[in-house]
Specification:
Shape: globular
Number of strands: 11
Mean pLDDT: 88
Distance between the termini: 51 Å
Low-confidence stretches: 367-371
Length: 456
């Protein structure tokens, strides 16, 4: 049946290889969008003509009588696989492959099409993926389109240095506990098969989101191991800085404008050590707040999940329920919550808002015949993300101008939303100074208290 039915084969491939796994049960999470996408029926689902549960029952009937799922996964309300129903030899073989370098596999074959994974196959996959994402949705604005065109034109050889780092990346993964180890190993396997990401767009944001399990979406510790031969840049506390200006958070704006470290301030306020794991949890909470997350969800879902995820990676985290509960009471955060409420009310009353590019975003509510929604919090997040993209425009302009040279000095190879990764070919120090100065001139002119930093 799997050999003859593309939908069943795609779904079996998903439940065997997805990195979208519950941090608690270790089971694969299956949203209605994922299920209907596997069967090529996503549009019909959005039109209310097909239910995902009917496809799950069809898979159980035709392929795996033991396949089962539950019907609720926390706040997402997505289903979670409880039994794959697939033969244990198939499951075991798949897991072994995920932890084995492609170069050590004897004649590796792709599950979906049954073809050997060769350079020719990889080229065809890149072409097919690029065509698919570019046809799926137009860029939301000209700048987003420029970013995608530039990144899709990056030659595959620009990723060659990553290939030499996969064993080091696997060493990082081996230190993780389950289910994090399985999550990241599956993504790393996909990146090894196809290092170059391809980017699409969603209805809710201008951000470029890579298709599938990619270098952009992989765990940050593993990505750092892979990118040792590249240079990474990011906007310091980008979303918080944008919110401080756009939402009139005067105290926060002054705090950041004076060069203070928000993470140190938050750690001091909660009486915990200023460590990388604690910062990661606070960053999750802060960004979830800026993106419109409800206060309870921010503290006891997003931040709590981040704590569990970090502990699965072997990190010590000093933030527990007491500290998480106090997060929204910290002076700077209390101001953000207050001003955010004012902004949300304004958007709701106006029925939407414009982003920095002049695009109007209407408030939408999901209904039975409409597959997308755009609530007020999503609009707030999209507005700030558009500013973030605008702040980094000078970087893209410099990178585009490099292409006019016979021998470019550098190439951007990866989009990281509020940052990017660069492959330097020559004049590294000159390149980085040009990039940093160009962005910092724009942030200063816009009175947004952030700077472009070089990640060590």
């Amino acid at each position: 049946m799997l050999e003859d039915h593309n939908g069943h084969r795609a779904f079996a491939c998903y439940i065997l290889g997805s990195s979208f796994i519950s941090d608690f049960s270790g089971q694969v999470i299956i949203t209605a969008e994922y299920v209907t996408h596997c069967y090529g029926m996503k549009k019909l689902f959005y039109q209310g003509q097909i239910r995902a549960v009917d496809l799950l029952r069809l898979f159980r009937r035709d392929v795996a009588p033991g396949f089962d799922w539950d019907d609720d996964y926390g706040e997402t309300k997505a289903r979670e696989v409880t039994q794959t129903g697939l033969h244990e030899d198939v499951v075991r073989a798949a897991e072994e492959d995920f932890h084995t370098p492609i170069t050590r596999l004897e004649e590796p074959v792709h599950f979906m099409d049954g073809n050997r994974i060769t350079p020719t196959w990889q080229t065809r996959q890149r072409e097919d993926t690029q065509e698919e994402v570019e046809q799926a949705r137009d860029a939301p604005n000209a700048l987003a389109g420029r970013w995608r065109d530039y990144l899709h034109d990056v030659p595959v050889r620009a990723f060659n240095d990553i290939r030499a780092r996969f064993e080091e990346a696997r060493e990082v993964v081996r230190e993780f506990n389950e289910p994090k180890k399985t999550q990241v190993a599956r993504t790393l396997s996909a990146v090894e098969a196809q290092p170059k990401p391809f980017y699409g767009f969603s209805e809710r944001t201008v951000r470029l989101a890579s298709e599938g399990q990619t270098l952009q979406s992989i765990d940050s510790d593993v990505r750092s191991a892979l990118l040792q031969d590249y240079q990474k840049f990011d906007l310091k506390s980008a979303q918080l800085a944008v919110a401080s200006k756009r939402w009139d958070c005067d105290n926060l704006h002054s705090f950041l404008d004076n060069g203070n470290d928000v993470w140190g301030h938050l750690c001091d306020a909660l009486d915990v050590a200023y460590t990388a794991p604690n910062k990661a949890v606070l960053k999750k909470g802060l960004y979830s707040t800026v993106y419109g997350g409800a206060e309870f969800n921010v503290k006891f879902i997003h931040m709590k999940n981040e704590v569990e995820s970090l502990r699965q990676k072997g990190h010590e985290v000093g933030l527990d329920i007491k500290e998480l509960n106090s997060f929204s009471e910290i002076d700077l955060m209390a101001e953000v919550y207050e001003q955010r409420s004012r902004e949300m009310k304004r958007v709701q009353e106006n029925g939407g808002a414009k982003d920095i590019f002049g695009n109007w975003m209407s408030v939408k509510v999901r209904n039975g015949m409409d597959g997308c929604d755009n609530p007020v919090p999503s609009i707030l997040a999209a507005k700030n993300q558009a500013v973030e993209m605008w702040l980094l425009e000078p970087v893209l302009s410099l990178a585009e101008s490099e292409l006019e040279k016979t021998r470019p000095y550098f190439r951007i190879i990866l989009n990281l939303h509020d940052g990017f990764a660069v492959r330097h070919y020559r004049r590294k120090e000159e390149n980085q100074d040009r990039l940093v100065d160009a962005v910092n001139e724009r942030t200063e002119g816009a009175d947004i208290p952030t700077v472009l930093e070089i990640e060590e």
